[in-house]
Design a protein that fits this description.
Length: about 750
């Protein structure tokens, strides 16, 4: 690597710790503005530094036509007739969640287990069984799923189209907002929170908040100490730390914080310890009350002892019914507590993966063998694995995308209805580059789920395909993965392909890593290395080594800086001058990656400096001007980059991946950021000709190997590292791996799928 003085911060966490005492994951509310809804990576788009003040009135971030001008009736009717991509995706998500909930509601009886437990775990299970017996409400703590009847699904919208103005069907009524505003004022809370509170708590929000002030904790960004102050002002002498309402609210809040950090559940001791640190006098009672009210679910999972054989697969209902009789032979268990939505999604995902893995006979047909014979190396291994198995995992770096591309081409040549899905339009572009023709069968995952791209769905709501190859699999969270797997028809094959060294999903879970750990299906590792100096550098980081790489063409440049101010100055210089002049890469083809949104060298500060240099303007469209680069989050967990075109009464008009997008003015603040500088989680699905990775001094404490690997890997031709962390960088690469996430998927899979050979 070379050092160039001429070419020119804050940090992004790579994984969670406990919800209370560890740094929050990148984009959690603690790393951004308080009391603002989450953006695509869990962060809050549209910060004050982006030109939009969180909590401000819509009129303060207006676009032309927002001062009372109404959209013409004909235009509104036309917009209402068009189902936008975002609406279709949200509708698909809602349909899938309803199906999951129906399946879990049909569960039979509680699993007879826990006879060997004692102490807190036994008390917790006793409380849960009291719920099941009818002594308390909600009878779905432990249960076994039954297959759901096939569902009929309407024909989805098949054509890509601009995102039209969202009708905001869930927007609270003005009377409800006003009533909530009065309650907030009575408790000394910011009245600007009224729309958020009304949206979260629903039509009776004011009454609910008056009866239980700690419901304020359900609003994203509100912390327990703030809710406590509000409760004291409302309740006066009746407010007490041991109030059961407070215990339940703090329990749910901690589980939500854990989800933001990537956990799908928390171990009971971890949860009770966090409750104690939050001043809950009786943590066990708080957990039991939360379970009794149905606000969370409890589970017990078997723990694998070192050297022990894998847990046996249940062969029949009779084997499950004999669990209690065999209690003496069971090993240790752990008790977990999780929010219902993630618990049910993880169970549904495990059921779906087991269905796919067990569906096909393990035999290689002659046509598949013929296709494998025409390939070589790990590509042939991948084709043979897919021939005989319903579920296959494929691992490799950027160059390894050639192998799933070859599988896709081979499958389609055999007449198989095969499709490949990538998380971003750029991922789709990079996969299509390995194919002679990709029209129609290389799609984005959001487009596949919404029906805007791909094969559409059959009469039962399943994808009309035989083979789905899903790339960028490490970015799958449990809810998205469950929707994909539940949408596969019986007998279809699924290939999950990705680079396990990258950052995990922004949402809860670690689906790809859990599937690798469970070892319930064939795993094919690519032997195609990433080429050139950049490939050598990134490959070394992946195994924990920060090597000195020869870069004769200055593919890699290190730019030392002393402080955050110098880091910002050098970054602007690199993007606007040095990289275009030395490599012919325009400023619009260079991405800046920095660890977090806040701080003196975070995305806000860097975007402000880059806008001033590259596209100065007054920000007259809610903080944006035509030509601004943006990062748009149509739904939480997904970022699409693009540019501002214009704005009018309909909202902010963007160009994203070559398509037109209209963001309604009331959503601009929460879903659009400036996009010259991104976090690694925002950038993970895409690559650019050049990347400038900014590492200011205050980034040292949260750097990790997955973060560095992901950030360095965003560059295709040139990488500049604005380096201010000294020896913390090689130390992080060598020693700091991804923080663990508490999930249940490996255990759930091992009980349903035999271990792979």
């Amino acid at each position: 690597m070379s050092t160039e003085p001429e070419p020119p911060s804050t940090t992004e966490n790579t994984g969670p710790g406990t919800p209370d005492d560890a740094p929050p994951a990148e984009g959690s509310p603690e790393t951004d503005s308080v009391a603002a809804p989450a953006g695509d990576d869990g962060t809050t788009p549209g910060s004050a530094a982006d030109g939009i003040t969180p909590g401000s009135a819509t009129a303060d971030a207006t676009v032309p036509g927002s001062d009372g001008g109404a959209v013409p009736e004909s235009a509104a009717e036309e917009s209402a007739r068009k189902l936008s991509e975002a609406e279709a995706e949200l509708a698909a998500q809602k349909l899938e969640r309803e199906r999951i909930e129906r399946r879990k509601a049909e569960k039979q009886g509680p699993i007879p287990a826990g006879t060997k437990l004692s102490g807190k775990a036994a008390d917790l299970l006793a409380a849960v069984r009291a719920v099941e017996s009818g002594e308390k409400p909600t009878a779905t703590v432990f249960a076994d799923p039954e297959p759901a009847p096939p569902r009929a699904a309407p024909e989805p919208v098949r054509r890509p189209q601009p995102v039209a103005a969202d009708p905001v069907a869930t927007a609270p009524a003005p009377d409800t907002v006003e009533a909530v505003r009065r309650v907030l004022a009575g408790g000394g809370a910011p009245e600007a929170l009224a729309p958020q509170v009304a949206a979260v708590l629903g039509e009776g929000a004011a009454e609910a908040l008056g009866e239980d002030p700690w419901q304020l904790l359900r609003v994203p960004g509100v912390r327990p100490e703030q809710a406590d102050g509000f409760a004291r002002a409302l309740l006066g002498a009746e407010c007490a730390p041991d109030d059961e309402r407070r215990g339940r609210a703090v329990t749910v809040w901690l589980l939500e914080q854990a989800a933001l950090a990537g956990h799908t559940a928390l171990e009971l001791p971890t949860l009770t310890a966090a409750l104690a640190r939050r001043g809950v006098p009786d943590a066990d009672a708080a957990v039991q009350g939360t379970l009794a009210e149905g606000e969370a679910l409890a589970f017990q999972d078997a723990l694998e002892e070192p050297g022990a054989a894998p847990a046996p697969v249940a062969a029949s209902e009779e084997s499950e019914e004999s669990d209690e009789d065999n209690a003496e032979e069971t090993g240790p268990v752990r008790v977990l507590v999780g929010l219902e939505r993630y618990a049910l999604a993880e169970e549904s995902l495990a059921d779906g993966l087991a269905r796919v893995a067990n569906a096909l006979a393990k035999e290689t047909s002659t046509p598949w063998e013929s296709a494998a014979a025409q390939a070589s190396g790990s590509t042939a291994e991948l084709i043979r694995a897919v021939a005989g198995h319903g579920l296959v995992v494929h691992t490799g770096g950027e160059a390894a995308r050639a192998e799933p591309a070859a599988l896709l081409a081979a499958a389609r040549s055999l007449g198989v209805r095969a499709f490949a899905a990538c998380h971003t339009p750029d991922g789709r572009r990079r996969l299509a580059a390995h194919l002679d023709a990709a029209d129609g069968f290389v799609v984005t995952l959001p487009g596949l789920l919404s029906g805007a791209e791909g094969p559409g769905r059959d009469a039962e709501g399943a994808f009309a395909l035989d083979l789905l190859i899903l790339l960028d699999a490490p970015q799958l969270d449990v809810e998205t993965a469950a929707m994909v797997v539940e949408s596969l028809p019986d007998g279809a094959r699924l290939v999950l392909s990705g680079d396990p060294a990258l950052l995990w999903s922004a949402g809860p879970g670690r689906v790809f890593a859990d599937l690798l750990a469970a070892r319930v299906c064939p795993q094919v590792a690519s032997r195609i290395p990433d080429p050139g100096p950049l490939g050598e550098l990134v490959s070394g980081v992946g195994v924990g080594e920060l090597n000195q790489v020869e870069a004769p063409g200055k593919e890699i440049v290190i730019v030392p800086v002393r402080d955050a101010g110098e880091a910002v100055h050098r970054t602007v210089q690199l993007v606007s001058d040095s990289v275009p002049r030395a490599f012919g890469i325009a400023a619009g083809e260079t991405v800046v990656v920095t660890p977090g949104h806040g701080g003196a060298a975070g995305t806000r500060a860097l975007n402000a400096a880059l806008k001033e240099r590259l596209n100065p303007g007054p920000g007259r469209f809610g903080g944006f001007d035509p030509g601004d680069r943006i990062a748009y989050s149509p739904v939480p967990g997904r970022t699409v980059t693009g540019r501002v075109v214009t704005a009018d009464a309909e909202g902010l008009h963007l160009s994203c991946a070559g398509g037109a997008v209209v963001v309604p003015k009331e959503r601009v603040e929460h879903s659009v950021r400036h996009g010259w500088a991104l976090t690694a989680h925002q950038a993970v699905g895409s690559r650019w000709p050049a990347a400038v990775v900014v590492l200011p001094g205050d980034a040292a404490q949260v750097l990790s190997r997955p973060w560095v690997y992901t950030a360095f890997g965003r560059a295709e031709r040139h990488l500049s590292v604005v380096h201010g962390v000294e020896q913390a960088l090689p130390g992080a690469v060598a020693a700091i791996t991804a923080k663990p996430r508490t999930t249940r998927l490996p255990v759930l899979l091992r009980t349903q799928v035999p271990a792979a050979d």
